[in-house]
Write a structure and sequence with these properties.
By secondary structure, this protein is α/β, with parallel strands linked by helices. It is built from 15 helices and 14 strands. The protein binds 4'-deoxy-4'-aminopyridoxal-5'-phosphate.
């Protein structure tokens, strides 16, 4: 029987862990069925507890851009471990990784390491508020910036998947300072500025959205946000937790040629270990403790094992000049072929893609914002997901998530994926 041991482990887990998982989207709640319990992963493949291998298009939700258990990252990390696990002191390695990142990412002079994307975004808005001495922020419906209170207002990712984008437990006092705009709708942003003159500390946005499925900004949208921010004395925060070091070394800023004031990172930056970071020009970063009054801290921040894994990953990305072209090309082929297969079957769908991020929406209509993403047929997505899973292809278990293509996914894995898609019946 498929998923036999995973089912047993899931049943047991639910006795001790809410929903059996330590992060909601892992629970397969919206697609139904049993989440795979994974015991190991190598290259393009993950192996479940029933000893089945799957081509992995989740890649730990983005970090594993090189594929799993990359030998160089593994060796460097193990070597680092021999010197100790955590010191709670500064290390030379932290300066090395900071130097590398500030050299390759545009518009940043300094960076602070944290332990997750959530922490990075939470700290970024605190810094923006401290710097501008204003309270309110603008976020976009369907964007996800982690689970801190200020962002759980019409949030994407699991919050969208489970139909509770506004979480209980977030006070009205907090919610009133988060103003919502529509992605790709500059008028909705202008209106908020008109109603909140001189009150907006920051606009935070996923420059390529990945948490309502993959949604690409329309021509001129981000540039208009930049102009508005300049006019209003508001900081533009690019949440590059997904896009940083994935779309290019310089992330979305570099790919799109738009400058942000603060940039947040996660996922790839830690090479699979728990790391996040936020960065900006010196003038802004100097507001942070211990230099400035905006407080932010972390016992395990800059942890040497995590830093070594991240530094080694970023160095590989820095040295392999063709890697980004390669993964983009793989994603383009996947997109085109899946489009052909679904079109031949007469199944209404849209694929959205940017670089090595993509997703498939089952709808006739263009998908450019959260409303469009919600209107897609998610029960067809769920069927597609399970069909692919049975055939050894591991997609994210929700129509509100993005597929992440790793450099370990080659022709053979694409062929397997397309073969699986060919036998899908809606
Ligand atoms: N921002 C974005 C754009 C994300 O995609 C995520 C996580 N998927 C986060 C922030 C939060 O990161 P973490 O899960 O590491 O807290």
């Amino acid at each position: 029987m498929l998923y036999q041991r995973s089912s047993a482990l899931f049943a047991e887990a639910q006795n001790y862990i809410p929903g059996g998982v330590n992060s909601p989207v892992r629970a397969f709640k919206s697609v139904g069925g049993t989440p795979l319990f994974i015991k190991k992963a190598k290259g393009a493949y993950i192996t479940d507890e029933d000893n089945r291998d799957y081509v992995d298009f989740i890649n730990s939700w983005g970090p594993m851009i090189l594929g799993h258990t990359h030998p160089e990252v593994l060796a460097a990390t193990v070597e680092q471990m021999n010197n100790g696990f955590s010191f709670g002191t500064p290390t030379e390695l932290e300066t090395e990784i900071a130097k590398l990142i500030t050299a390759v990412v545009p518009n940043i002079d300094m960076i602070r390491m944290v332990n997750s994307g959530t922490e990075a975004c939470m700290s970024a808005i605190r810094l923006a508020r401290g710097f501008t001495q204003r309270d309110k922020i603008i976020k976009f419906e369907g964007c996800y910036h982690g689970h801190s209170d200020a962002f759980l207002i019409k949030a994407g990712s699991g919050a969208a998947t489970f139909g509770n984008p506004n979480s209980p437990g977030v006070t009205q006092g907090t919610a009133k300072d988060t103003l919502l705009a529509r992605y790709n709708d500059i008028e909705s942003v202008k209106k908020i500025f008109e109603e909140n003159e001189d009150e907006i500390a920051a606009i935070i946005i996923e420059p390529i959205a990945g948490n309502m499925g993959c949604i690409v900004p329309e021509e001129g949208f981000l540039a208009s946000l930049r102009t508005l921010c300049n006019q209003k004395g508001t900081l533009l925060i690019f949440d590059e937790v997904m896009t940083g070091f994935r779309l290019s070394l310089g992330g979305a800023q570099q790919r799109l040629g738009i400058e942000a004031d603060i940039v947040t990172f996660g996922k790839v930056i830690g090479g699979g270990f728990p790391v996040g970071a936020f960065a900006a020009r010196k003038e802004i970063m100097e507001h942070l403790a211990p230099l400035g009054p905006v407080y932010q801290a972390g016992t395990l921040s800059g942890n040497p094992i995590a830093m070594r894994a991240g530094y080694t990953t970023l160095n590989i990305l820095n040295k392999d000049q063709n890697l980004y072209d390669r993964i983009d090309k793989t994603t383009e082929i996947l997109d085109k072929e899946i489009t052909n297969i679904l079109s031949e079957k007469g199944i209404a769908h849209q694929t959205n893609r940017f670089g090595s991020m993509m997703s498939v929406f089952f709808t006739d209509e263009k998908v450019i914002n959260f409303d469009d993403a919600q209107k897609a047929n998610h029960s067809t997505f769920n069927k597609f997901f399970h069909h692919m899973l049975k055939n050894g292809i591991y997609l994210a278990p929700s129509g509100y998530e993005t597929w992440f293509i790793s450099d370990a996914i080659k022709t053979e894995e694409i062929d397997k994926t397309l073969t699986a898609a060919r036998s899908f019946e809606a």
